[in-house]
Amino acid sequence: MSHSDGIELPPIDELLHEPARLRLLVLLSVVKRADFTYLLNLSGMSKGNLSVQINKLGDARMVKIDKSFQGNRPRTMYELTAQGRKALRAYKKNMRAILAALPD
Amino acid sequence: MGAIENRVYRAYWNDGLLDVFAAVGVLAIGISWSFDFIVGGAITPALLVPLWGPFRQRFIEPRLGTVEFSEKRERTNRSRLLLLILLGIGAFALVVSLYVLRDRLALDPAVSLIAGLPALLLAIPAAFTAMLIATGRFLVYATLLVIAGGVGAISGWEPGPILVTAGIPILLIASTVLARFFRNNPVASGEQE
User: Which of these CATH numbers, 1.40.20.10, 1.10.10.10, 3.20.20.60, 3.40.50.2300, describes A19-100?
Assistant: First the structure.
């Protein structure tokens, strides 16, 4: 039996397949947009981790990053892009297919 | 709207500021009625509503952050809020009419129960708010208003003291929720990016 005939599973987006990033995308998928402090409170992540993960999502154009000032305070708003929403939908579909193939 | 969206939305209202505004509103209306200043019932919301945004921006957002909800949620809120305002105006007009006309009403038992009506009618928007923001605390406030309204009317109290009696425990609960929020959510020291 050849090992080259591997079982084909739906592809898993590795950028999304990480708990912190997935949590951020899910949170952003249910609101229009949110700032750094709000995501920090709702995700329960540390500032450093949030900063790293949200910027990775920003670099992948899954999250739109909008920097501005509110009075003297810098404020960064984050919004899920159409690309991010599409990727999240595909991830859900693929994970569902993989989990459905699992024996009980 | 999904379960996660509902949870996120409910968390948005868990700071206690709205509770404090509601308590101050009930107390202010009660105190103004105690001094026969019935118009205070209309002035109080008119004074509190414009303060809501600046207070939230000044005291809550630096701790909780800022969020904008989906268009669908905003639309649902606008229509529910409009209904709440209409309900409030209707309830207030009914209460003022009954209060002003109470001496002309022929039925004595009805006259004695009229004193409890403002509290009972304020319980309606409180229950409606509980549904609007999906929090059980406002159901507790509605229950307190109903109890104060019923017991106060049977005991022969005036509307003002009844509302003050209901407003004090609401303010205590609201202050506790707000204090807990302040304790658990210090002002964010800045973003790290």
Answer: 1.10.10.10
Cβ pairs A/B, distance under 8 A: 69
- With tokens 């992540």, the residue in question is A45
Can you give the pTM of this predicted structure?
0.81
Question: In the predicted model, is pLDDT for residue B182 greater than 80?
Answer: yes
Name the residue among B67, B192, B193 with its Cβ closest to that of A38.
Answer: B67
Sheet hosting strand A31-35, strand order edge to edge: A63-70, A73-80, A31-35, B67-69
Which DSSP helix (H) or strand (E) runs through A31?
strand A31-35
What ipTM score was computed for the predicted complex, to two decimals? 0.83
Q: How far is B131 from chain A (nearest CA, A)?
A: 19
